[in-house]
Structure formats: C-alpha cells, structure tokens
Hints:
Blueprint: E1 4-5, H1 6-13, E2 19-21, E3 25-26, E4 28-30, E5 40-43, H2 56-61, E6 66-69, H3 72-80, E7 84-87, H4 94-107, E8 115-120, H5 125-138, E9 143-147, E10 150-152, H6 167-179, E11 184-188, H7 191-195, E12 204-209, H8 217-220, H9 223-231, E13 238-247, H10 251-257, E14 264-266, E15 273-280, E16 285-291, E17 294-300, H11 306-320, H12 325-332, E18 343-344, E19 352-356, H13 361-372, E20 379-383, H14 394-403, E21 407-410, H15 420-428, E22 437-439, H16 443-453, E23 459-463, E24 470-473, E25 476-479, H17 482-491
Helix pairs in contact: 1-4, 4-6, 5-11, 5-12, 11-12, 13-14, 14-15, 16-17
Amino acid sequence: MTAKRFTSLIGEAGLRPVAQSGEAEVAWITADTRTCGPGSLFVCMPSRNTDTHTFLGAAREAGANAALVHGSDGFRAAEAMGMTAAWVPSSQPEFNVACGSLSRAVFGDPSSAMRVVGVTGTTGKTTTAWMMRDALRALGRRAGYMGTLGFDPSGERRELANTTPFPVETWQLLHEAASARVEDLVMEASSHALFERRLFGVRFACGVFTNLSQDHLDFHGSMEEYEAAKLLLFTEYAGPGFESAINVGDPVGLSWSKKLDVTVTFGAPSAELVVEPLEKSLSSLVLRATYRGSESVFKIGVGGMFNVWNATSCLAGLLALGYDLDEACRAMESVTPVPGRFESVPTGRGFGVIVDYAHTDDALVKLLQSVRELAPSRIITVFGCGGDRDKSKRPKMALAASANSEVTIVTSDNPRTEHPLAIIEDVVKGLVPGAVCETVPDRREAIERAVQLARDGDVIVIAGKGHEDYQIIGRTKHPMDDRQMARNAVAVLT
C-alpha cells in the first residue's frame, strides 16, 4: 500500500481538526497497538472505561509515527513523543465519521472495488447474509461475508468482536477483502453501527431489509429511534446506483416502500416476489418462487418454516442485484446451513434437538412456529435472557416461549453483571398462566433436564445463543456451547 503524507490524508478526508501538528508518511491505520508498525497512524478510539491516550506509548514503540486523538492531553502527549497528531472531538458520531473518512483515505476506498451488500433488520440478518454469500459464490462470484459469525473473505472464517466492527477495523477488513479480490461482500449492518456511523463512507451497492421488532431499546430508547437507525442504510449509506430489497410484509418495510425507490418488494401476497413452501423438514425445504410473471421451484439444504423467510430475503437481494429468477433460484440450491441458526443436533433417539440464536420475542415466536409446522408431539423450549440489556423484553420472551411450547425451561443466557436469579425473576412474570415451566439457572443443567424430559416425537428447542461457544458471567467469557452440551446430555442417556 502506497504511503501518503499525513496532511494530505487529513485534507482528503475533509477533516477540520481542533489542532494539528507535524508531518509524516502514513502507510497504515489502526486502533490496536498490536497491529502497529512503522508508518502507522494510531487512532485513540474514545472509550467510557479507558483513556485510550495511554496506549500512545505502546503505539509509538511499535513504530507508529502519527496519531488521531480526541483530547488536549492526548494531543500534547503525542507531540511530546515526536508523533504527528490531529485532534478531533470525542463526540459521537463525529469521531466515527472522522475515522471512517481517514481510513478510506488511507486505504484508497476499497469498498468501491466491490459490490457491498448490507443486510439489516431485527431478525434474519445473519442467515440472509450467509445465504447470499453462498448463492453469489454459486453464481461464480468471489463473495465474502462479514457479520455475527465473523469475517470470511475467501473461504476461511474468523471471529469478530462485533456484528459490525468499529470504523478502523471495518476499513481494514474491506482492504483485506479487496486485496483478496473479493467481488461481492455481504455485510450485516447492525442498528448500533448505522446510528454510530461505523460504516461512514462505505459505498453500499445494495441493501436488504428483513423486518423490525423490539430489540436494543436499552441503546436506542424507542422503537422510532431504532427504526430511524435501520433506515439510514437506505438513505445516508446508499451509494451510486443503489438497489434495495424491502420486506413489505413488515409494517415498517411497507411504510418505507412508499417513500423509497425500492428495487424488489417481498414478504406479502401483493409483493413482487412471493415464495411459498411446497415441502419442509428439519433439514430441507422445497420452495416455489414467483416474480414478475415468472415461476421457479428449488430445494435448499436448510430446514424449518423459519428459513422460508430468510430464503425469501436472500432471493430478493439476488434479484435486486440484477439476477433473473431462474439463475437466482439455482444458486439458492447451493446455500449451506448457518451455524447456530435452526441447527439440528443429531440425537440418534426418537426426539429432535434444534439450537438457534433467537433472542427476541419475535424471533422466538417465529422459531417455535417453524418447529410447530413439523408437527412434533411436544416442544420443549430452553431459553434465558441476557443481563445488562433491555429488561422490558424479558417477560415478552417468556410469553413467546410458554405460548408456543408444551414445556418451558427458563435458564441463564449471558448474565453478565446481573444475578441470574434476578433475570429469571423478571422473565417468569410473562409466562402464560398455568404453563408448564421449570426454572433451572445453570444452563448446562437446564439442557440436561430438557433431554431427560424428552419423549419420542418431541423437539427440544435451545434458544438464545446459537453459534456462541461461551457464556459471559461478569465480564468474563467462559467456554460453553449449547450444541456440545446437548450432545453430551444425549450421550449419557440410558
């Protein structure tokens, strides 16, 4: 990557720093001292818990010769270390905008070298994005994925700390994808990231909206603000020639469709794209799609009614990108199961086990309805609610589980800094009166209890954590995998 003069980068990014000093040749930008090297521009990201200016020394020692700081103390410290520096106020989203603009200038806007597809909504983002990645690869494209399940530019996936990373990391990943000659990058766009402008400057070629239901009100404050954050993908982030696929079966999507230039509508009988299941099982679906006078039947290797909606969102995104119905449907036949999303755990017994990430009441209802479509004898649902998160959804989760299950087992999710029993106390307030329910705080024991209760024809649904292989207690991640715990519990059955 060609080095650029710091003052030129500041100008190219359109920044107006509070203060600026020195000059340096910059070839890399990072907010992590572990990835600093000679010619690095180190970004001191504002933090509620830490004064990130204290990392300047480590960055300088690693070879960084320039810094983006957010306060006068940091600016003076950088100068004292002989670093070129620019001071931008720490207020958000302004600092993230500065980071995005500066990162794009350093990397030469890698997002313009590919089609970036953003998928947003309360539920279905991960599965839709994963399916689109698979389908685009089947169409002969070099396609990558970025989201809850990590980053996969070319076939090897690694974890990310956030569904949508912070600005500097996002641009580093875009640069990596462009270097790997990725042609299409399908990215989950979370409401937090959209609102905080973590994606500022990214040129989106297409946006897909799945749905909107209550979530993250601890962050956004109201459903109106939550909706406004999602809408940004289709307004502020829309690049030249932007295409869109909107679920008009969702009231919010229907409202948006009346004020946006929508490429493809889906999700309602009156929509342009209508998809209906012809056959369904735990592991596959046969679907019929109709679109603007054309019809196509195809089979995908993922099961449950739950995934009919995700497949529809994915197919709508492919159509919005310009593929015709037949080629898009053929590509859909290559999609692979998503880790922790309606994932079947083989038991070798007469009952089934499904592990899913559903952690909102709407997602849980849809998940359980999908299982009900398979006509099980009983549904046994194991779930919990996360600590230090929106408390208002806890009783709603209990209502969703107990109204759609024969047996409900309430347990811990990621309690974080809250006491698990206090969380469970909030949850059980929403149970349907008279519902069969047990509370088992230890998640491992809760899964074991569900397996002990299961009879032939039952389906156990373990919801809330999906692909996660840890549990957060306090601020520490402890190894824990619902899938493995289910397998272990089945293995010890007599």
